[in-house]
């Protein structure tokens, strides 16, 4: 199968720090690809650039064959490339359900005109969106929390909500930024099942992850980033044997 | 006495428009606007000049809304990404800029003398001029209230609230946040413009000194009192501010310890105190930020 995401010669400098350095990376359509690397390797910066929140200094990003670098975040999202945030950014004052009902694109009720016209069309649309939102909550296992304020979710449940919000739009590619960080082992198992379900439904995943068990179990391919540069890519088993990767993680100690 | 009550009510209704506008911008969408008086002033001058030229009141109101709204759109587009820190400074500066233009450009709107003899062209048969004006303004405010209420409770209002909470999230789900913020700003400015038009028509005289920054602060207080984001609360807040500002004038007949000038200062202090208490109770230690 072809590559859904292709990054070539990507650079981003913050002052004296070369956060992303001649980065080359590709994600095969239909895969689960892991992105690993030591702290400060530029993984989150890379996500931020891919999703349009940060402008790169140079380089190309192709998504589904079309250039997306330098496009605004909302335009990138509309093309079917969605991200989650490492620290969950739930909309606290809204209910869990509302957090998801916000997502569907092209809502008629999202236009000013709808406010001036009879409400029937909006009500109907809202019913459809609510049903879709409840289904997504069912998928991730948050159905019982639908009507409580998002602020009252636990840390792990907020991670699930991040995933649910991403899933709600049925994107082509999801960038998941440390989906299991700070989550208890039971919930990690649950999150992994959800990710597998999402993948099975036809969505390509690119996952930043520190937990090697998660990487080993989920990913068919792993890309290793160090100081903004891709130093290795391969199957999880290959990566575990890679001396350069060990050096990067352990700070150049002789293995 | 009744005439005085009618006058207070008319002021409350007029400020109601301005506050509803600010509630869409700040309450709902989180856009800090410290210069709402600019759009109020432009609406007032717009209605003053056009009704003097013979335009009936209703078209003049529509025109005021359009002109103020467009001006709001221009401010929005010239403010980088409508970020709140810039916006507070830009709007405050802009409102003074507008006032100074009206003050100094005599050819445009009479300069410091203002515009006198603005027609108040509406009367309902059987009612005096003041009461008919109140009825008409109140009906229009009810329409503005209905619009605001629907806006807040429709999906578009959910999107605006989401922008207030976390703009990054809204961009990440594929919504053009700048468009929504500009829209909210334009709507708020247009409502302030309608308020200004009614203000000019009611007073039949306007001058630049009526459009100082204190007007922006009064409506800010009204929105804050009414719990940011609530449409009904905004109107209640406006009523409280109107009573504190105008209603306390009545007190001068009963309080003899202080003279009129001192009482005027006390009225402002009362408003300031009310604001401080509200903020302390609602946002103080132990409450949500």
Automatic annotation (TrEMBL), chain B:
GO terms for molecular function: branched-chain amino acid transmembrane transporter activity. Pfam families: BPD_transp_2. CDD domains: TM_PBP1_LivM_like (cd06581). It is a multi-pass membrane protein. This is ABC transporter permease. One of its GO terms (cellular component) is plasma membrane. It is found in: Cell membrane. Keywords: Cell membrane, Membrane, Transmembrane, Transmembrane helix. The chain crosses the membrane at residues 6-24, 31-51, 57-79, 86-103, 131-148, 183-205, 265-284. InterPro entries: ABC_transp_permease, LivM-like.
């Amino acid at each position: 199968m072809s590559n859904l995401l292709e990054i070539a010669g990507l650079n981003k400098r913050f002052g004296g720090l070369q956060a992303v350095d001649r980065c080359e990376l590709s994600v095969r359509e239909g895969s689960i690809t892991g992105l690993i690397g030591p702290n400060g390797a530029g993984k989150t910066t890379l996500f931020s650039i891919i999703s349009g929140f940060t402008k790169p200094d140079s380089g190309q990003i192709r998504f589904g064959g079309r250039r997306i670098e330098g496009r605004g975040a909302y335009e990138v999202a509309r093309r079917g490339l969605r991200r989650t945030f490492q620290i969950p950014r739930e909309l606290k004052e809204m209910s869990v359900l509302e957090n998801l009902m916000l997502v569907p694109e092209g809502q008629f009720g999202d236009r000013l005109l709808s406010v001036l016209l009879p409400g029937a069309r909006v009500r109907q649309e809202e019913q459809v969106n609510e049903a879709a939102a409840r289904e997504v909550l069912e998928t991730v296992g948050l159905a019982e929390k639908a009507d409580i304020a998002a602020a009252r979710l636990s840390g792990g449940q907020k991670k699930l909500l991040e995933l649910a919000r991403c899933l709600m739009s049925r994107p082509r590619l999801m960038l998941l930024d440390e989906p299991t960080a700070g989550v208890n082992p039971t919930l990690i198992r649950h999150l992994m099942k959800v990710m597998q379900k999402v993948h099975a439904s036809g969505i390509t995943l690119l996952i930043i992850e520190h937990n090697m068990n998660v990487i080993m179990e989920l990913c068919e391919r792993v890309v290793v980033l160090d100081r903004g540069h891709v130093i290795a890519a391969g199957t999880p088993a290959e990566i575990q044997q890679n001396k350069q990767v060990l050096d990067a993680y352990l700070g150049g100690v002789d293995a | 006495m009744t005439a005085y009550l009618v006058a207070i009510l008319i002021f409350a209704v007029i400020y109601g428009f301005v506050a509803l506008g600010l509630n869409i911008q700040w309450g709902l969408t989180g856009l800090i606007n410290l210069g709402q008086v600019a759009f109020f002033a432009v609406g007032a001058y717009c209605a003053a000049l056009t009704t003097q030229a013979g335009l009936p009141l209703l078209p003049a109101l529509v025109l005021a809304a359009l002109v103020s709204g467009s001006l709001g759109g221009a401010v929005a587009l010239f403010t980088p990404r409508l970020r709140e820190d810039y916006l507070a400074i830009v709007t405050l500066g802009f409102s003074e800029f507008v006032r100074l233009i009206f003050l100094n450009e005599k050819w445009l709107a009479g300069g410091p003398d203002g515009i006198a003899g603005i027609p108040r062209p509406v009367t309902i048969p059987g009612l005096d001029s003041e009461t008919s004006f109140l009825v008409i303004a109140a009906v229009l405010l009810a329409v503005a209230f209905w619009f605001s209420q629907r806006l807040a409770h429709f999906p578009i209002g959910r999107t605006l609230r989401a922008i207030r909470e976390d703009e990054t999230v809204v961009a990440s789900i594929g919504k053009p946040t700048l468009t929504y913020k500009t829209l909210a700003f334009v709507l708020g400015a247009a409502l302030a413009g309608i308020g200004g038009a009614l203000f000019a028509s009611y007073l039949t005289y306007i001058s630049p000194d009526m459009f100082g920054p204190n007007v922006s602060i009064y409506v800010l207080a009204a929105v804050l009192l009414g719990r940011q984001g609530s449409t009904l609360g905004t109107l209640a807040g406006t009523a409280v501010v109107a009573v504190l500002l105008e209603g306390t004038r009545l007190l001068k007949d009963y309080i003899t310890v202080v003279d009129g000038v001192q009482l005027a200062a006390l009225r402002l202090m009362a408003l300031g105190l009310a604001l401080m208490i509200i903020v302390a109770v609602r946002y103080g230690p132990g409450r949500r930020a």
